[in-house]
Amino acid sequence: MTGKVYPALAQRDRELGPFNAAPLTSDGERQHWHFKRDDHNVAWLLMDKADSSANVLSEELLRELDGILDKLASDRPAALVIRSAKASGFCMGADISQFRHLASQDEAVAKLNEAHRVVQKLADLPCPTIAVIHGAALGGGLELALCCDYRLAVPGAKFGTPEIQLGLHPGLGATVRLPALIPPIDAMTMMLTGKTVHDRKAKSLGLVDQLVEERHVAAAVTAAVQGEIDPSEQKAWNSKPFEHAIPRQLAGKRMRSQAASKAPPEHYPAPEALIELWEEHADNPEKMLHKEVESFARLLQTPTSQNLVRVFFLREKLKAQSKAGLEEDRDLPELRHIHVIGAGEMGGDIAAWCALQGLRVTLFDMKPEVIAKAVGKAAKLCDSKHLSPARTRDVLDRLIPDLANHGIRHADLVLEAVPEDLEIKRKVYAEVEPQLKPGAILATNTSSIQLEQLRENLQKPERLVGIHFFNPVASMQLVEVVAHDQVSESTLAQARHFVGRIDRLPAPVASAPGFLVNRALTPYLVETICLLDEGVDAEAIDQVALDFGMPMGPVELADQVGLDICLDVAAMLRERLDTEQPATPDWFSRKVEKGDLGRKTGKGLYNWEDGKPQKRDTFDPAPEDTLDRLILPMLNACQACLREKVIENEDLLDGAMIFATGFAPFRGGPMHYARDRGTEDIAARLRHLQDKHGQRFQPDPGWDQQETASA
């Protein structure tokens, strides 16, 4: 029966040529590719990376491809079709784990040259070659497709060169082949930003030759084989000037300025390396391919790339948390219906994000106008994600205003996002808990209240969990999943799985004052207020942090977070932690009392216009020790969180701080930075600051424990 059903399902799912008629099985000769010719001598080659849910280009996969291409060169087919056998997409790029095993620049050059040799065989194959792309074709996956004569894309396909996010530029020929195919400025923009290009944009650029529905793929392949589709070739008038060095240099100057504003070259060398490649060698493709390899191999050995590769794997470790615990408890119910209590800034945005991710969401608030505002923001979110009107309507249909709070009784997870007030939250729980259906989870978005206090009056405290989002919800990837001493393992597992289900990174933390992120971030912001109180210019403080590599300065960050929230969290930590915290200056408290709360009110530490802080261009430089005064208290708090087991290990901590606060990614995370700098130096510098500025800089005992362990 299976053999009869499979062809129909395969045909409906993806056009697989001669493989439509039989299941895909390994032939023993190849692990990563399926190969078969159809009745018209068209060879179909399906990429299917073994033991992986998505295709990535590994050394073994390319070695198999090399052998297949040798056979095709000697026994030429009418055409070659390459596509993915996996539903997840075409190819996500190179197997980044193999980058870590390259011991030297020379070894990297040798490996890259071998990969270039293989893909050049594809480019030189003496028959039409056709890449059929569904899902993502990224990095090396796109570079493989660029070696084909034709690219046919199924709606929903996306293309990109994200290597810049790893401190690299493309290394498998895209620096030459992409600018030859589409307008060079567009090609350079793709490579310099790492942003993806979606199906229709790719068609308009000439990156794909035809955009075809899956049911028409076979006909499009036939048309390409018969020469009825003209392959995309870059002949646009605006590409002609860049065949000469001077126009490339003029364009390169502007690219440098734009790249430096996002990624300073002293921290991120890859954009400059790519621009230099294009400026100096774009008129000699063969030489540029050679120089691309050298440049890529050199960048691979830089601390920036090694740390950004580390960040990639930190992200993978956080993603893996969404599956932790599910193996032992396979009968956990799927969370399909979410009920959110409180439609304010956080609650409304959480509800919108969950609906965007395909969940049914009921949203309660006592004020209809607040729910209406949240729905309006959800529509804007859909627009920012370039959703079609039909898909936007689907999202808004899933976001259901619920003025009567009826969703409690039907929801798989009820999440409260009411104000940070213990008594208000307890009143909500007293109303909610009796209405929860069996197996439902009660979650809180509290940012500061310990869950041991929140669970006190619950009949079933084992199903209360913290699911702490950061603002803005649609941009911040990290979500803290907060445990307390009576929560069940199944509740935690479901909470982590829910966070992964909505395309967010779960960071498992213990219930403690400020949890992890606010605990570590608050000393950074408190020291900022101390510097301002001493008369240091706000712009100077921000510049020190920006020069270190933070995405924004701490003064601007405090305004973004909200001065009222900064004040409350600082007061909470001052009350609940043993470590000394400086008193809040009167002028800061008066700002909050006056309602000057930062970006949300248009005035705070800066004045804000059109969502941007108004900063002076000229200001006095900050004192010499400003960087350590800002960064070391954050590191000290991170060390305390590790010592107190607020989070399990340094990798999870570094990942959480990078993805929640933007801690300079090229430094690999706060604890990685501390180890690179030397924990002895960190402790000594804290003691120096303690002598000069007070007890708030007292080194955490964990530093001495690390020194003893390393000795």
TrEMBL record:
Positions of the UniProt region annotated as Disordered: 691-711
Keyword Glycosyltransferase: no
InterPro entries, A to Z: 3-OHacyl-CoA_DH_CS, 3-OHacyl-CoA_DH_NAD-bd, 3HC_DH_C, 6-PGluconate_DH-like_C_sf, ClpP/crotonase-like_dom_sf, Enoyl-CoA_hyd/isom_CS, Enoyl-CoA_hydra/iso, FA_oxidation_alpha_subunit
Signal peptide start and end residues: none
Positions of the 3-hydroxyacyl-CoA dehydrogenase C-terminal domain: 514-608
Domain 3-hydroxyacyl-CoA dehydrogenase NAD binding: 338-509
Record pathway: Lipid metabolism; fatty acid beta-oxidation
Catalytic activities: a (3S)-3-hydroxyacyl-CoA + NAD(+) = a 3-oxoacyl-CoA + NADH + H(+)
Pfam family, one: 3HCDH
Keyword field: Fatty acid metabolism, Lipid degradation, Lipid metabolism, Lyase, Multifunctional enzyme, NAD, Oxidoreductase
Record carries keyword Oxidoreductase: yes
Family: In the central section; belongs to the 3-hydroxyacyl-CoA dehydrogenase family.
The protein's name: enoyl-CoA hydratase
